[in-house]
Amino acid sequence: MKKVHVFVFAFFLFSGFNSTAQCNAEMLSTQCIPKLAPGFNFLKSYKIEKAGKEYIEYSYVFTKGTQYMINICEPGQSVQGITVTLEDSERHQVATNRINDQYATSIVYSCNKVGIYYIKYTFDNKGDYCGGSALGFKR
Amino acid sequence: MKILIAGLCAGMLLACDSGSKSEEQALVDAIDISNGDSEAVSAEVNDILHRIPSPLEISVLLKESGKSYNPAFLNSPDNAERYNTNYRKALNLGIYGTDLGYTNIYEHSQDGIKYLSTIKGLADELNIGQFFEMETIGRLAANSDNLDSLLLITTQNFNNINHYLQTQNRSGLSVLFLTGGWLEALHITCQVEKLNPGNTQLRETIGQQKIILESVMHLLSLYGENDKNMTALLGDMETLKKSFDQVTITSVYKPSTYEVVNGVMMVKDNSTCIIDITDADIENIRTATETIRTKITS
Predict the structure, then answer these.
(1) Whose CB has fewer CB within 10 Å in chain A, the N or C terminal residue?
(2) What is the DSSP secondary-structure string of B28-60?
């Protein structure tokens, strides 16, 4: 019986409390696509796996007059610990989903300035996060 | 070096005249697009490939600004049989991909099915046909209620192809799809502008392509040293770039403002951007685009 308890404890230790081991970023990024708001056309899905990294970054050329939506999907229902920040080509921060300690699940950015934008995912220090994200657009 | 060896082999093969037609074609295809991206090139290519806007953005712009559907702008599916090298197949696959997006956005499903079938044929020849489930896509295309699903699945297919090619160290093909697709979107925009001169939105859309052209040229330059086709294409793009040289894009940054609505961060960009493009610039861009496109599609 003791062995069973040890096994169960080990199981939770190595799987239940280790979000990276359980997390499937590919699946989460796919799940994020239908969560784009109606009217937004899907462009890209992104995997977010912290895996020891300080941040994960992708880039995309945004065009003037277009609205872009970026959402985040984590294993739970809400976004807790992954911040998405949008920076323009000169590295000015133009949008974020985080205000103080509150995380919005998505950003809608109305772009006035064409250029390369950097979509940067950062993490708080509470865990080894993973998740998915999708980018969509509408005119 | 790889190309040199392949070239010598090709020379010997042709000199001896002992190879069958299919062997010669296989060899031509093998040297057609350099394979085996280096790790550094692959990472850089991957970054840039991800950032090039989808041609679908332009098709949506055209439809939502009330411009009517015009199949005469597109590359006829009948031309596909002319494309007898991997290089031409890949470039035209990109062109047809943009044409498919255009027909889908305008809900011309019969045309869309023809483009889809052509794309599937070229993709099969490039050994990436497995990404197109024709039965599913055909069913979606047959009903305009499925437009969102159709657009989603075709976008995902092209994303999946690019991802697969990167894992196979064949990103050169992705670069060609992307170049073809982008050029076709520019061509369509230039043709629509010709029918709607003075339309600010169209003029600005053409002007904004200057930034994307820089990324496309950078991608091609990463392959240019080892691939004669890429080098030639890069040369054509340099000509196109000259037609963009007088276009100016002036941006002024101002901090954004935001509000949270139903859990969504709604961000208003307060920056400004002025795109200065003359009638002569547009005509030069249109001419240069047509010259390159004709080379690729004819």
Answers:
(1) N
(2) HHHHHS-----HHHHHHHHHHHHHSPPTHHHHH
Distance (Å) of CA B226 to CA B35, B143, B230: 10, 45, 8
Residue B31 to chain A, least CA–CA distance (Å): 31
Q: Are strands A106-110 and A67-73 parallel, antiparallel or unpaired?
A: antiparallel
Tell me, what's the ipTM?
A: 0.85
Per-residue pLDDT of chain B (298 residues; tens, 9 = 90+): 444 444 433 333 333 343 344 544 544 454 455 555 666 667 888 889 999 999 999 999 999 889 999 999 999 999 999 999 999 999 999 999 999 999 999 999 889 989 999 999 999 999 999 988 888 887 787 777 777 888 888 888 888 898 898 888 889 999 999 999 999 999 999 999 999 999 999 999 999 999 999 999 999 999 877 789 999 999 999 999 999 999 999 999 999 999 999 989 999 999 999 999 999 999 999 999 999 999 999 9
pTM: 0.85
**Backbone φ/ψ region at A48: left (φ over 0), alpha (ψ -120 to 50), beta:** beta
A54/B192 Cα distance (integer angstroms): 46
